[in-house]
What we know:
Blueprint: E1 8-12, H1 17-28, E2 32-37, H2 40-50, E3 54-58, H3 64-78, E4 83-86, H4 102-130, E5 133-137, H5 150-171, E6 176-182, H6 188-197, H7 202-211, H8 221-232, E7 243-246
Parallel strand pairs: 1-2, 1-4, 2-3, 4-5, 5-6, 6-7
Helix pairs in contact: 1-8, 3-4, 4-5, 6-7
Bound molecules: nicotinamide-adenine-dinucleotide.
Amino acid sequence: MKELSNKVAIITGGSGGIGLATAKRFVEEGAQVLLVDLEKAALEQAVADIGPQASFLVADVTDPAQSEAYVAAAVEVYGRLDILVANAGIEGVVQPLTDYPIAMFDKVLAVNVRGIFLGLKYAFPELKKTKGNVVIMSSVAGLGGTPDVSAYVTSKHALVGLMRTAALEGARDGIRVNSIHPSPVETRMMRSLEEGFAPGAGGEAKKGFATAIPLQRYAEPDEIADAVVYLASDKARFVTGVRLPVDGGMTAD
Ligand SMILES: NC(=O)c1ccc[n+]([C@@H]2O[C@H](COP(=O)([O-])OP(=O)(O)OC[C@H]3O[C@@H](n4cnc5c(N)ncnc54)[C@H](O)[C@@H]3O)[C@@H](O)[C@H]2O)c1
């Protein structure tokens, strides 16, 4: 029995590590997916990898008109919207907050918070029609502090407030909203952060991060995708307003 048969999903950041893995799992589970991301070439490649159940739209999630357009595109192509995976995000830079570039702080907040607010704002009217749901990609950085990544940590904490508010508002219309909080995952983003924390010695930084995870390793993107499938599926039909860590025990203590 497939978990997402006949469901229509939008996945923002859909050509990135976690987004693409999620799109593949969604299609295996019977969904049709619209991938939203910035680069046409990467999206074309992603859709070619996934097959005919996937399509794409180039859009910047920080832009209201483009956010409204990706919701409209899903409804135009597939006739309905059941699931929004609000996953697009950026890491910013690694700098103590006294040196943190103000423009970069604003950019991280724009993509990671405003982008998800806009997705909720424009998707809710369509999700109301299907009693659909939203899965927001936060992070363990949304549950606790980490030095030198103030913008990222701030943005991922902000998503908890946004998720909880959206869950309470959405419940009036049968819409569920939850967030996922991964520990480090094997994607481009972690390579960038490892290099930021230990320039020229990213491999050493990785070992240090992995040691801080009780299961002693990074997650694979598929392992996050499986959690998204669960929250987006009817198996989670009474689950809303929840922060789900998928973190190898990192936040257990
Ligand atoms: N990799 C990790 O260790 C990790 C851990 C916890 C949470 N996360 C979160 O998971 C999500 C996905 O990250 P990932 O690891 O797959 O990284 P990634 O860089 O591979 O993917 C992020 C995707 O978002 C897209 N994106 C960025 N800005 C955008 C914008 N303005 N409009 C549309 N798309 C935009 C990028 O082009 C990219 O394809 C992010 O929100 C990230 O913060 C990642």
